[in-house]
Amino acid sequence: MSEEVPPPESLTFERKHKSWRQMLEPVTEKDFKHGYYHFWALKKHIEPLDIPFAREIDPMQRDWELPPNWKEIFLQNFEDTLRKNRAFKVFMDICVRCGACADKCHYYLGTGDPKNMPVARAEIIRSIYRRYFTKAGRIFGELAGARDLTEDVIKEMYYYFYQCSLCRRCSNFCPYGIDTADIVWWGRRLLNSIGVTHRFSHISIEASARTGNHLGLYPLGIAEALESVAEDVYDVTGVVVDVPVNKKGAEILFVAPSADYFATPHWFACMSYLMLFHEIGLDYTWSTYASEGGNFGTFQAYELAQKLNHKVYEEAKHLGVKWIIGGECGHMWRDKHQFMDTMSGPADFLEDPVSPITGTYFENAADTKMVHICEFVADLIRHNKIKLDKSRNDHWKVTFHDSCNPSRGVGLLEEPRFVIKSCCNYFYEMPEHTIRDKTYCCGSGGGLLTEEIMELRMRGGMPRAMAAKFVHEKYGVNMMANICAIDKAAFPALMEYWKLPVEICGIDELLGNALIMKGEKERETDLRGTPYRRED
Amino acid sequence: MINPFLEIVVPYAAFAIFIVGVLYRFVSWANSAVPLKIPTTSGQAGTLPFIKRSFYDRIDSPYNKWEVALRMLAEVFLFRSLFKNTRYYQSRHEHRDTRWLWGFAILFHWSFLIVLIRHLRFFIEPVPEPFIYVTELIALKIWVPTIYITGITSLIGLGYLFLRRLFSGNERTISLPSDYLALILLISVVVTGLVMRYIYKIPLAPVKELALSLIVFQPVAVDVHWLFILHLTLVSITIAYFPFSKMMHAGGVLFSPTRNMPNDNRKRRHVNPLNPPYHGITREEYNEMYKDQLEEIAERDYNFRPEV
């Protein structure tokens, strides 16, 4: 935990109500707050990605060294975006500023900064749209809510577009479905065009473009990491499991976020994947070229997202698999569900996704040929193809955090709950306004999982933490399950900060705990090494 | 008062601007490409047969075009998304459903629509009996004294929408002058209408004569009450302003990709007409880059089963 973040008791959430004129004044480096602004991108990360005008500056410096014709480039790209993306154009035009979105944003609730209201975040760029692309804005200027494009406005965009985690909670409540995530995503792409961009996402995008995964692991590193996962499986269960890597002719390609074989608590979910696939005798393979399900390109630009999700299909073709299963990850599933097929498809060289164990045809993945692990597991459980001992999870009182993208970008709500209820005796829902389509972000999604903005992340995670606190106090919940790699990375810090004794797991970890394997020894601990308490 | 300019020129010009402007906006939206299918899924998606989907799931996370149609109808006529509105109470970290905005928005939009429909009687001669009967029914006419409730309620709805912009902190912050302008225009239109209807009961015959002449494009300026001229001018300003203002949300909602697209992304592929080609490392290049390591994986027969 970063020491600079003030303790929760000292945080204030006072909402400031500026006037509309003040709202049109850009927030610049003079007002940037430590713990809120991102570090600048490094040349070595963005140059290989063809992001122009790479330069290394400190966002706190006055001169941002914009290219001489930056305004022209920006407006040219703006016009181009309006032509390329109907959503962007419509969202520029139809907002009525009803304010329904205002208190839906966890960053607004956590910071009280009026520019963190989704409507205000969009107004940052909408004001530029009005000034240069509408008649009213050109004629009436400020009165029509328009303002000139200046270097200060660019600074403001940089500051606030990187205070949005693209969770789409506001879009859920907007009467016109205005999707701030779409505006911010394409807005960041606009900023990229003049070399104004942050560091965090591009480290991973560059690594993934080069090596196939966000961590930049080389093929042998991946395989050996998976081997150590299998070693841990042996230690807990006494079963030796196969770890097929780059195996040509396997039936199924399995793609998970790279954090699953690198970080905890992701690791324990990864153990479960290996155990499950071994137990049902699935003919599958991991891949080193497509060793990443996640796609940080979806936080930055269409082209960068395509750069990364292309690899999944190319690898599927290369290995000659029939179809694809994807592991637990949030934005990965927004990408796989809504983006990948359009950007890198069609996947007509693959076969229909039919479970080899149950014979179920996953009709909802008929074209993309990629099935979520929760769907696959739910189907197995439904057909009684795996044996589960719920009591092995009795030491966990579980709640489920709907990760933003699987809930509002995929609609994956019931499958995870079905899996959890099949694996656990104690399951409690958080308050209804904080789950399912109304779920709160962990505060660190959308490219915000970076140390330098720790205060923003802890503040933004406040509504989720308070919901967890509620079920912790009411039911004694001590485990928050989720299906997102970023959640798993972000929540342990969040729970520690808000002083909640709640642990974090992927729901597959609960499955692994409960899964009865052929030839296993009597388990003394669960997958993460917590000893089972014995009655005697 | 006879004023050919305000009675004929202004209404025709305003109407022409309205039609051309709205069509222009629709065409310009339609001309932009739709790169991605990005429905906001607010309910359980279509999936395995044993995962049950409620009626609300079908509306909020439509799996086919019929369900999309339902979602759009619910959005346009019932303000479905606004109905879900909540309020966050910071001090006790609690959420409550808040439907005030939804209630008053519905009140205004529906009342105003019915008022507009009832205005058709000025353009039809003779007015069919069923039309009178039905519109009096839906306008909630009460007889003592004769009042059409919808006229009043549309003003109440507008009043709420106006006052919340003035008195709610968040609203004041995000409200632009143009937001007030739209409300002020609508309020003045409704007020002048109500004043004519209930306070200064102006003679209706000349009004109808003018309306009938306008609708058949044989305009004849007639002697109408000045209040009506005011009303007509305000209406003209409002509809001429409509295409350039946020009032275009009325048509824009139909174009919103988060609402008008089905959540069947993995079942039916969406094609982006401007999809760029892939730029990046291909599998062959990758094989070259990591030749040694990939060979080691091959030597282990593509299986990293741990040795125990």
In short, what is this structure?
The complex is a heterodimer of chains A (536) and B (308). Chain A has 536 residues and is mainly α.
Range of helix content of chain B: 55-70%
Poorly predicted regions of chain A are: none
CATH class of chain B: Mainly Alpha
* Largest sheet strand order of chain B: 1-2
> How many helices of chain B?
14
**CATH evolutionary superfamily of chain B:** Transmembrane di-heme cytochromes, Chain C
Instruction: Quickly count the domains of chain A.
Output: 2
Q: Looking across the biggest beta sheet of chain A, what order are the strands in? A: 2-1-3-4
CATH topology descriptor of chain B: Fumarate Reductase Cytochrome B subunit
> What series of H and E elements makes up the topology of chain B?
HHHHEEHHEEHHHHHHHH
| Strands of chain B, total number | 4
Q: Based on Cα principal axes, name the global outline of chain B.
A: elongated
Please state the structural category of chain A: mainly alpha
Describe what you observe in this structure.
The complex is a heterodimer of chains A (536) and B (308). Chain A has 536 residues and is mostly helical. Chain A folds into 2 domains: 8-198, no CATH class; 205-514, no CATH class. Chain A contains 22 helices and 7 strands. The mean pLDDT of chain A is 92. The termini of chain B are far apart. The mean pLDDT of chain B is 90. Chain B has a single domain (4-278), classed as Fumarate Reductase Cytochrome B subunit. The interface between A and B is large, with 132 and 101 residues.
Features:
heterodimer; A: 536 residues; mainly alpha; 2 domains; 4-stranded parallel sheet; 3-stranded parallel sheet; 22 helices; globular; B: 308 residues; Fumarate Reductase Cytochrome B subunit; two-stranded antiparallel ribbon; elongated
